């Protein structure tokens, strides 16, 4: 379908090609925003190259169609305007099937049904990974397919809106699909990508604004209109500058954005910019990423440190990941005197008072000691005695403060050896994933505790086994596993951080019939003065908790000392005797490394054990090269926008149709004081103009080309206005020729006329 009255205001070539280029830039910059939730890899380069190819396909095809329609005095409109997007869709599908539908990661030119099946299967795998992994997720082939495919879809939608439907202002909507994951999950966005995207959108509006029309009537170039146009130019530049400055400010401050939503992904990550949230979905196979150095909380006590502060516990393990599930409904806390503990403690020692003030931690659960305690806090809080957690309805905020009264249990080796009674009535505490190495893990656990006769001695043997620095290496990088059981892989490689150590001890304890779970929280932190401590994101930690009848859950510490410090006082390691519990000489572990720890005991490394990926802003400010680069980019963008606007204001615009030609004729003849009343029909105008010119020339003959040119324009105008479809449309170049002929002839006629003293005659009203 075509129409005879296009509404474009920019030259076709500039508008079409600039629109495709700016959409490609905006989508490319937005794709880089996914880097906050997807790890670095080749997927970014693939996405950029694919978007560039699609921009070339849609831009060139739309340019060719627009040029052809313009030459006929028509404009491109739906459904013909949708053809370039359809071509882009075909090329995009072909690229995705070729890139990600083959048996390997090599590009395949030949596409078949097997490619489609592989792409669908990998998309399903990508969905499962996004629900199970911790950000930033590894850019595996399924994840790369999801990222690049999403960028392709966003580009096609954005290009259709900007180029096909001329809705440039709506391009920001599809771009949100690429920004929302980073905003919701991590609470941060790349400042440079944000500024580039906003700048591209501003330039897109400057290049193509179909709602602004320029009429070429007699009033089109009056001085007051030129002044108003100048004001519009200045206003456009000021608005563009303001938008770019605001974008720069928002991008630079993005690290401090709060959580904006709670979704399945957002609960998997432990940091939102300068706020910290512990991961509740831990992956045994994931390397430990850089953790936030922000202060999570501070506490003041009238005694020594209160030990680790636990936030939540985990029970379900599938062989690779821990699964928590939804929060449970607890019972309302009745007051600051209520002792919160799953059972009645057999006995307690002298209580300790603690005042906790939260800083950057944002969670619906309060950090509390692993010993019986009472909590005094304002607001509605409840206690889940199954998971031993203190829960609120809303995430905590900076400055949240509460009082703890801690009642330490008199735990020691003797009391734990003599523990007797019933275990919890929950089989999940004894569940071990049914993998091909389940029996191997059971056999290894039995070998490690061989000779231990009590639950306590077995737990101590397991802890001693893992803390042997000559056998196990603490490292933030996890060797790739080659089996379906992450615990067995760790027991072979013997390299990892707290998640691997704690999980392996928990599973091995379960094989021995000891109920066990995982505790997640923070180490005691650093002492600030005699009674004050501060805890940072780098103190995040995980540990096993084993059940002892009559005592409840008891914490052990298998992670090496360079991360955790000493073991709990009730779990002091015992000397390993040959052939006794913990003797590694009897443990069959082929492939085990005997490398010494990479970190000297007693020194905490920068990247140390955590319960998950704790990303987030560091304490350093924005690097100066980035600031300077962004400032230069904004300056160049504003200069380009100003150049485009001024060029469009100073260059004559090409005629599009007979209406434009008629308006230009009236304007240019009006400058010669040759006008006609608005009520004059186009067919009468040639007669009126000729009579006016003849009266001003006296007896000198008038050039006949003037009358013929005006008559030709009038005929073209009548055909355009009133002739039914299909109709013959006069090409734009012919219209321009007629306008120039009429005006040039009128100027020549008036310049050759004899001088008159009475000025121009009034046009007759006919």
Give a structural overview.
The chain is of the alpha+beta class and 766 residues long. The protein contains 19 helices and 23 strands. The strands form 7 sheets. Strands 10-13-16-11-5-21-20 form a 7-stranded antiparallel sheet, with no helix packed on it. Strands 12-6-19-22-23 form a 5-stranded antiparallel sheet. Strand 22 (540-548) and strand 23 form a beta hairpin.
The count of domains is 4
- Give the strand order of the largest sheet, numbering strands 1, 2, ... along the chain: 10-13-16-11-5-21-20
What ranges have pLDDT less than 50 throughout 5 or more consecutive residues? Answer: 1-10, 211-273, 575-582, 588-634, 648-652, 755-766
> How many beta-strand runs?
23
Describe the sheet with the most strands.
7 strands, antiparallel
| Cα Rg | 38 Å
- State which percent range the strand residues make up: 5-15%
Distance between the termini: 40 Å
Q: Mean of residue pLDDT?
A: 75
Number of helices: 19
* Residues in helices, as a percent range: 40-55%
In terms of structural class, how would the helical and strand content be classed? alpha+beta
Approximate shape = elongated
